[in-house]
From TrEMBL, chain A:
One of its GO terms (cellular component) is cell division site. Keywords: Membrane, Transmembrane, Transmembrane helix. One of its GO terms (biological process) is cell division. This is ABC transporter permease. The chain crosses the membrane at residues 40-62, 186-207, 240-265, 285-308. It comes from Mesorhizobium waimense.
TrEMBL record, chain B:
One of its GO terms (cellular component) is plasma membrane. Homodimer. Forms a membrane-associated complex with FtsX. Gene3D superfamilies: P-loop containing nucleotide triphosphate hydrolases (3.40.50.300). It holds the Pfam family ABC_tran. It is found in: Cell inner membrane; Cell membrane. InterPro entries: AAA+_ATPase (IPR003593), ABC_transporter-like_ATP-bd (IPR003439), ABC_transporter-like_CS (IPR017871), ABC_transpr_LolD-like (IPR015854), Cell_div_FtsE (IPR005286), MacB-like_ATP-bd (IPR017911), P-loop_NTPase (IPR027417). It is a peripheral membrane protein. PROSITE patterns: ABC_TRANSPORTER_1 (PS00211), ABC_TRANSPORTER_2 (PS50893). It comes from Mesorhizobium waimense. Keywords: ATP-binding, Cell cycle, Cell division, Cell membrane, Membrane, Nucleotide-binding, Transport. GO terms for biological process: cell division. SUPFAM superfamilies: P-loop containing nucleoside triphosphate hydrolases. This is Cell division ATP-binding protein FtsE. The gene is ftsE. PANTHER family: CELL DIVISION ATP-BINDING PROTEIN FTSE, IMPORT ATP-BINDING PROTEIN.
Amino acid sequence: MTELSVEHLHEEPAEMAGAVQRVQRKMAPIVPAQNIAGRALVLVIAIMTFLSCLTFGAVTLVRDTASVWENQISREATIQIKPVEGLDMEAALAQASQIAGEFPGVKETRIIDRDATARLLEPWLGSGLNIDELPVPRLVVVTIDENNPPDFAAMRAAITPKLPSAALDDHRTWVDRLVAMARTTVTIGIAVLALMLSATVLTVVFATRGAMAGNGHIIEVLHFVGAEARFIAREFRWHFLVTGMKGAAAGGAAAILVFIVFSWWSSRNMATPQADQATALFGNFAIGSAGYLGVGLMVLVIGALTAATSHATVVTYLSDIDIRQPDAN
Amino acid sequence: MIRFENVGLRYGMGPEILRDISLHIPERSFQFLSGPSGAGKTTLLRLLFMSLKPTRGLITIFGKDRSRISRSELPHLRRRIGVVFQDFRLLDHMTTYENVALPLRVRGREEATYRTDVTELLKWVGLGERMHVLPPVLSGGEKQRAAIARALIEQPEILLADEPTGNVDPPLARRLLRLFIELNRLGTAVVIATHDLGLMEQVDARRMILAGGRLDVYD
């Protein structure tokens, strides 16, 4: 428009220079930064990311704890010797310990002595117990090399003829039950996580589409002033990527904070009955580097999902405008 | 520049809104498109702007058959046509300056390369003092002029204006008309859709009258 006549000008050149100066500020973004729908979208994404990350963290925690349970229990076996008439218990314990110790795959054997046995029974029978007055079975703890476990059937066959009142418990039943329980818990956790992620995906998609609905006039104006489809899509994609990342980062950070607070609480209250109980169940409440990495990944995925949804909405909208036939009006 | 031959258009299975429209808009021409409300003036403008496809007939725009223009070609062709919408379609979160600069911005041009042009154009349409104001605080006439400036910023070969004086008082309508005449004098073809007879009487220009779906052209 440089050739236009200036007969319509009303301002002086000095004013014009001032006006040019004033326009040297940052241009408003093509897609408005925030509106009510945009803020609601950030909030929805933050909440859904927070819940997804908590679920993810919980599943990680359960999986790790289940694996620790499994390893700890399968690391030991016990030989239980029942007192019978004429049995020299101390000799029997030593003999059982010796037989077990000879098997390959056994790292160590340890006889639970009288005092330790009394302590074990203390919660039920009280203190000051004389162990010799009661027919209490005694135990030999056999520590096992997890990578090269001994042949329990052979061990049982070696002990039973010599000590008929002895029974070898390799905790197999417990381990099997725990493994089954842990696997079920992890499977349920993964199913809950899958549902949570699906809900997050759908919520993010619909919330983004909702926020996009208010931007139809912008897409239309851009289209009619000659903007190419990829330009319009890029503007919206970038805007919604930032919006999605903001919400997802807030939700992810809140989830990480929760894990850190729990971890701190658990370490601070160590050696108290409730903390011991919680630690026995859930380990030390740390989700580990894999957990934090997962949270980070989730933030990226949710941001990308928001951007992809806005991109698809723009492309569909533009396609509708371009192929719009009279019957669509 | 733009030619219609026996163009017809219907909405869905309804009756034809436009029937056997034949017209030619030469370069540097000035014409009014008139007719009663609901006669199809806006629809005809949308056909000229390629935001609608005819149900029959042949439209040739800048030497290209409309039915053969691909979607990727549309933005480039639209840049040669300036449109002033009846409802202005200004973006409320952008200042007048930013709205007028929008067609250049979407082409990826740096602001420094067009700042002076936009400022000059805004002064030319009398909005020099309102360039940093958001559209919601502009009057109807100011919005109209901002919309006109946005349509002109890319120096289009043809300007289509839909009821450009519909929201303004008679003195401002005359001023806007002078602006269109000035623009035409500088080489842009102008099509003004209006039902304001008073406005048309002020200029000795070609008149295209739409009535009953048919178009009569009075040179």
